[in-house]
Design a protein that fits this description.
alpha+beta, Beta-Lactamase, 12 strands, single chain, 53% helix, five-stranded antiparallel sheet, 4 domains, five-stranded mixed sheet
Amino acid sequence: MILVLLFLQTLLILGLQRSRLNNKRAKRALSKNQTELEARIAERTDRLNLANQQLQDEVAHHQATEILLRETQDYLNSIINAMPSVLIGVTPEGKVTHWNTAAELSTGLPPNQALGKTLVDIYPNLPISMDTIARTIQTGVPYLNESLQEGKGSSARYTDLSIYPLIAVQAVGAVIRMDDITMRVRIENMMIQNEKMMSLGELAAGMAHEINNPLSAVLHGVQNIQRRTSLDLEQNHHVAEELGVKLDVLHRYLEERRVLSFLDDIREAGERSMHIVSNMLEFSRGSSHPHDQFDLARVIRHTLELSDNALNLQEEKRPELITELEDALPPVMGSAAEIQQVILNLLRNAMQAFYADPPNRPPVIWLRAFVDRGSAVLQIEDNGPGMPEEVRRHIFEPFFTTKDVGQGTGLGLSVSYFIVTEHHSGTIEVDSLLGEGTCFTIRLPLADHTEHHRTSNPLSSGPTS
């Protein structure tokens, strides 16, 4: 029995010892696993920290890039909006993708009301069709249309229109650009007109000398014939008696055969030719009248006093002349005689327009004088038949006339243009509407620009041409 107990005790001790050893081995394995796990956690933490840092760096880089892109976009928008050109971006379907400040000023439509809308709906007056835009995008060839005219007369505006195809991976469409070139066109027309005046001046100088010599001989010969056939000169009677000819009989013969009338016609034609040559010479010489200060209102009144005889006005066809002269007009620098000639030329053209195409209303001519922006302004306006645009564009060109052959030389308005622009450093413009009337506006420099500087026309009665 004791032996059994000892055996059992020994087995129990051995079991406890084995259990203790297993426990030690388990603790060592657990400790090792814990150490390895901690190392892995530390390694994983390091990798996460590195990835997190890289992510933060990437986010910061993207933020910096976004800020840079936003600043670049704002800068480009500022440049585009600062341009005077109208810039409109459109898709192939005609939807607006960009609308700069110039487009807003031109249409009165802000970008938030234009973007995403169809171009033809918000800009119906645009002088291009959607087919043209689509064709430009499809072909990739820019489209250009120069000097598009809008309006007539002095209020006409001119525009250059371009369409540039925009082809990219994420942007397919076009950019429409419009530039206001009104001032350039006016300067070009002025330069062309001045070149014509200079060319005519050179031509006139040569022609005048060539024509004056034979013309003077013709007029001198006619005067001698009239003088030597006159019954008033005693010497003519003596020579006729010596030759056995009765001067009064000869004179009756000349009258009967209308020889004296033919001589009068030759003299009148020669004097008219001399007047034409004189007008032509205005282009080849400088101002023949001294420049000084003069009263424009007084010149206008004096011209109207002379107009009946100078223009051969008939009472039954005389239009109503209305003067609207600003009080206390400052003196103008120039030649009163030349300005009077210009006024007479313009009045003559208005009268001839009334006679050629009588209006269905009483004919009226307004003469206005006022100060505007440091210049004296003279307006001569009528309610006559007006003129078409193709005539208005050429009205100041030398030898251009709408009158029948023999009725006009086409130099009257050219001389007026030359006097105003070359002799007085002023401007002359014409505004006309067919069937409503014509208005000539002349600007002349004041003798003193500093005393009078106004911005509006206080005289506005009469029809607007």
